[in-house]
Amino acid sequence: MVMAVHFVGDAEARTLTQRAVVKAASYGLLGVDLFFVLSGFLITGLLLEAKGEPHYFRNFYARRSLRIFPLYYFVLAMLFLVLPRFISPSPLLEVARSHQAWLWTYTSNFYVAASSSWSALTYVTHFWSLAIEEHFYLFWPLVVFSFRRPVLERICLGILVGGLALRIGLALAGVSELSISVLTPCRIDTLCVGCILALLVRREGGMEAWVKRSGRAALGLGAAIVLLSAFCAAAKWGLPVLHQIRNSLYGLFFGALTLLSLKRPDNLIARAFQGPLLRFFGKYSYGLYVYHGILTWYLLEIGIDARLEALLGSHALAIAARPVLGVGLSLVMAVLSYQLLETRFLALKRYFEVRGAATHAGASAPLALSPSRAPRR
Q1: Cα–Cα distance between 249 and 231 in angstroms, integer?
Q2: CA-CA distance, 339 to 333, in Å (whole number)?
């Protein structure tokens, strides 16, 4: 979804069909919402399984660091330290390089919010979501450790309401929707949709009950989003408030979709989510996200659209070819990065295993989330 935004969503549309395709691709930005919900669900589950085990904090932070930091800081070092020694940075890359302190400290989302521009850090603006994720990693383990499950559920509900209220307040105060969308306090409620679901499915009989309701919930929330969007487009009234309500509905919809993916494999939708294609992309998803955004700006700088149109003799074919080229190159880069760099650090995670996690996961996830099928984080 996010790659659709970056490889199609900004293409020049010359016909009605092209405008429809580009508009549809622009909604791929919602892939970040899905990512936050899924992350909240998985991370909270890992923390709950580890709670009470020795070295709770050490194991979590060590495993997260081994997964996240090597690739992240490798890319920053290559872009800002190594590359300038061999070539002069392009004007667009120099924009990011001149503000690199925000990236090294995982505060780039605050700079993007202050700039209110998706071009604020050019090649690495998309790292704003990684900054929010890192903030979540820093404080959520302490919250899970400090409170019992019923209290945690109430905390999540409070964050869901508080996050919506904060976004509405900022919108009414004139803060841009872009700035609101990248601020950590304004996005933590989306993460907490996944968090509260991880708590609810671990109630006695909770997994089966909540997963059973997920299909109807997804349909209902999807219908509510469509109706609200239609009203916003027609009435043009109360948009600062209604858009933020819709953003909360997006998070709830992706929460229902996450539960729907946990149904038994005889369910068509669940079978698609649990199939080998998405598992393959899931394995390399971190590298795909990191590299595809950088590649997007590089293709822009070399004028790829004009080159493809000249080569293929058709603007429509150029629009179709760019995502094929972009996704293909991103995948090659992600696979090479995973095999040559990331696996070296991932192998070290064996020193920080949670001893009882496998047993607990098998007991609390009787449908599809058994230890052998659980997504690897």
Answers
A1: 15
A2: 10
Q: Are 320 and 18 in contact (CB under 8 A)?
A: no
Q: Please write the tens of the pLDDT for every residue from 58-107.
A: 999 999 999 999 999 999 999 999 999 999 989 999 999 999 999 999 99
Q: In the predicted model, is pLDDT for residue 263 greater than 90?
A: no
* Contact assessment for residue 315 and residue 365, using Cβ atoms and an 8 Å cutoff: no
Q: What does the alpha-carbon distance between residue 152 and residue 150 come to, in Å, rounded to a whole number?
A: 5
Q: Is 339 left (phi over 0), alpha (psi -120 to 50) or beta?
A: alpha
Q: Indicate the burial class of 25 (C-beta count within 10 angstroms; 0-12, 13-18, 19 or more).
A: buried
Q: Exposed, middle or buried, 245 (CB in 10 Å: 0-12/13-18/19+)?
A: middle
| CA 66 – CA 348 distance, rounded (Å) | 7
Average pLDDT (346-360) is 75
Q: How many whole angstroms separate alpha carbon 283 and alpha carbon 301? A: 29
> Which residue type sits at 359?
T
Domain definitions of the chain by residue range: 2-364
**Contact between 66 and 284 (Cβ < 8 Å):** no
Nearest to 305 by CA among 90, 89, 10, 5: 10
Query: What is the pLDDT at residue 356?
Result: 55
| H or E element at residue 299 | helix 285-301
pTM: 0.91
Q: What is the DSSP string of 109-127?
A: HHHHHHHT-TTTTGGGGGG
Burial of 59 (0-12, 13-18, 19+ CB in 10 A): buried
Which tokens sit at 17? 């069909």
Which tens digits make up the pLDDT trace of 266-276?
778 888 888 89
